[in-house]
Amino acid sequence: MFKNRGHFFETMTGSGQVTTGPLPIGQFVQLIKQTVSHDPLFRNQALKGEVTQWKQYASGHTYFSLRDQDGQMSAVIWKGKCPIDPSIKEGSEVVVIATLDLYVKRGNIQLVVQRIEPVNILGELEKAKRLLIENLKQEGELDRNRLPIPAVPKHIAIVTGAGSAALSDMHRLIDNRWPGLRRTVIGVLVQGPRAPQEIVRGLAVTRSLATEKTAKERGEPPVDLVIVGRGGGSPEDLWAFNLESVARAILASPVPVVSAVGHESDVLVSDLVADLRASTPSDAIERVVPSRNEMEFLLDEMDERLKVASRRQLIDCRQKITVLHSRLRVAPLAGLNRAKGEMMRIASRIDRAARQTLSVQSNALARYEASLAAVHPQRVLERGYSMTQTAEGAVLSSVEGLQSGQDIILHFADGSADAQILKTQKIEGTK
Domain 41-121 carries which CATH code? Predict the structure, then answer.
């Protein structure tokens, strides 16, 4: 029965060749699923349509179809994955945020819904977001030149929720990568009705901290980098970062701003207007705070390269002078002056190149040394600050955990002193 197999495929394709086949159907469906899963077009899409075939099962899962006059798709809301407005029913017009999925066993394509709202809520928010992005684009704000991120920040301002897990992660990473790096935390609300005005307030504080006047009054370097963001959450939780007031506050910053909101798939307006987008607050620290150990290694490597380059330049000079001397010994008298002139020109160029190389490398080394010196913990102590440790040796960065009568050790630039806690007072809105 398979004698005419080749003729069968030739008939089916019309060309005498089969593109891939024959593939097992399951393998082919898996290929489709992989394609859909990796294409961002099919992930976290905001879609609008009418609810039909609405069924809520005892298992907690909800199945329905989403349709309009031009098309229809099956959809599912898995148990506990998102709240469902009780007003939603058969015939309701809704907006969903959903990801396309393919059930391999049956070859069925469906929408897996992460959020569903009546069209007058989430739909209006998405509409306002798109309008804001379009306006910012027309103003040229999305295509403007971004402020450069400093190679070694001297003072970072962090605008985020006070006491949040995201803030703790950022502190931990900074302490690991560059101990003693100056940072100021402006605690704000990052979700809820008051979040936009709180974030705007926090960014206004950073603008003041970035001025030379305020920095001089506080006895610290001016803020040269701002990180604004929060950990992950639902689209509604993150919506403050899609509002115009927050976007304008970011654009008004005189120093670079990093948008560090804990999300991956959807792009927020704050991401579009910031000077740098980070996928999470931790990612922001890893991208803007260099590793002190790596920097010191780089300095040592540059110093060694400078020494090697200098030695190589001197060796090359000696070799060329030796060659010229050899030429002079055998050259005719008529060419003596020409040879001397050539030797002097070459020696001058070599000397000039060597001095230029040494100058460039020395300047680079001086800049890195200055950056290291500016943020060295000893410099902080010399400006009048102190470092506090418990009697067990733990470094203290907050009044939390301190108790009256507790023994502590105060470290200054020229020594240390034992002390005892009489009273503690925490400043609201700061770490």
Answer: 2.40.50.140
- Is residue 157 within 8 A of residue 226, CB to CB? The reply is yes
Average pLDDT for the chain: 85
Q: Nearest Cα to 93, choosing from 45, 48, 127, 126?
A: 48
The pLDDT of residue 16:
52
* Token digits of residue 359: 């100058």
Q: How many residues are recorded in the chain?
A: 431
What CATH fold (topology level) applies to the domain 145-290? Rossmann fold (3.40.50)
The total of other beta-carbon atoms located within 10 Å of residue 121's CB is: 13
- Rg value, the chain, Cα: 33
Name residue, tokens 């110093």.
303
So what's the pLDDT on residue 63? 95
- Residues contacting 284, CB < 8 A, separation 6+: 170, 227, 229, 258, 260, 276, 278
Digit-coded pLDDT (tens) for 54-80: 999 999 999 999 999 899 999 999 998
**Burial of residue 219 (number of CB atoms within 10 Å: 0-12, 13-18, 19+):** exposed
User: What is this structure's pTM?
Assistant: 0.51
pLDDT for res 199: 97
Residue 431 and residue 344: Cα distance in Å, rounded?
A: 66
| Number of Cβ within a 10 Å radius of residue 295 | 17
Which pLDDT value is given to residue 430?
Answer: 60
How confident is the model over 26-47, as pLDDT tens digits? 888 888 888 887 787 888 888 9
For residue 412, report the phi and psi dihedrals to the nearest 5 degrees. Answer: -115, 180
Residue 335, pLDDT > 60, answer yes
Are the C-beta atoms of 217 and 204 separated by less than 8 Å? Answer: no
Buried b (16+ CB within 10 A) or exposed e, 19-46: eeeeeeeeeebeeebeebeeeeebbbeb
